[in-house]
Design goal:
Helices cover 13% and strands 52% of the residues. It has three helices and ten strands. It has helices at residues 3-13, 28-33, 43-48, and strands at residues 50-59, 66-78, 83-91, 96-106, 109-115, 121-129, 132-139, 146-154, 157-165, 172-181. Strands 1-2-3-4-5-6-7-8-9-10 form a ten-stranded antiparallel β-barrel. Strand 7 (132-139) and strand 8 (146-154) form a beta hairpin. The chain is globular and about 45 Å long.
Length: 182
């Protein structure tokens, strides 16, 4: 798997994950510290709680062909229902990617951070709309990128899309689109 495709998948699905390993500064406590007045049992995050499985497509660039991907996401409450912990695995024909992390809400905004399986990290901010959340994710490090993540839930169906700017053509394109079911 290329670094760019791994970054796209991580940006899309890690949902702002902090690696969540015991004893590390990037634990649930650190994620909770990003929220001024954490909201308990947030309704939008609550609809995302559970085990999800689905398929979709990923693209490495605006002029590249779509590639099929399959993903599993497990979301659960953490820190007294003020954070959603996310564990995900995505795979294609010749790769597999896993990550885990946390996201929470403070007032009307959502915040979080994540570390992906490709050694990158990112922070995200955004808001809620209807049955979903819309986030701007900014990765850090030598290959810093920005992407837009949209997640919506309707009943037992979750739709996730990521849009980003192609660094080669400078055009925005849909880098990831998946539909998952509980």
């Amino acid at each position: 798997m290329t670094y760019r495709l791994a970054t796209v998948i991580a940006l899309a699905l890690a949902l702002l994950a902090v690696a969540g390993q015991p004893g590390r500064a990037d634990s649930a406590a650190a994620a909770l510290g990003q929220l001024r007045n954490p909201v308990e049992n947030d309704g939008r995050l609550g609809r995302m709680i559970g085990s999800w499985r689905g398929d979709g497509t990923a693209r490495r660039g605006s002029a590249k062909a779509k590639e099929k991907v399959s993903c599993r996401i497990s979301n659960s409450w953490a820190a007294g229902k003020t954070l959603m912990r996310t564990q995900l695995t995505c795979f294609g024909i010749d790769y597999r990617f896993s990550s885990s992390g946390y996201v929470g809400r403070s007032g009307g905004s959502y915040r979080g951070s994540w570390s992906g399986g490709v050694g990158s990290s990112a922070v995200a901010t955004g808001g809620g709309s209807g049955n979903g959340i819309n986030l701007t994710i900014r990765s850090t490090g030598r290959n810093a990128e920005t992407a837009s993540l949209s997640i919506s839930v309707s009943g037992s169906r979750m739709t996730t899309t990521v849009s980003r700017r192609d660094p080669d053509t400078r055009r925005r394109y849909r880098a990831l689109s998946i539909t998952l079911r509980k």
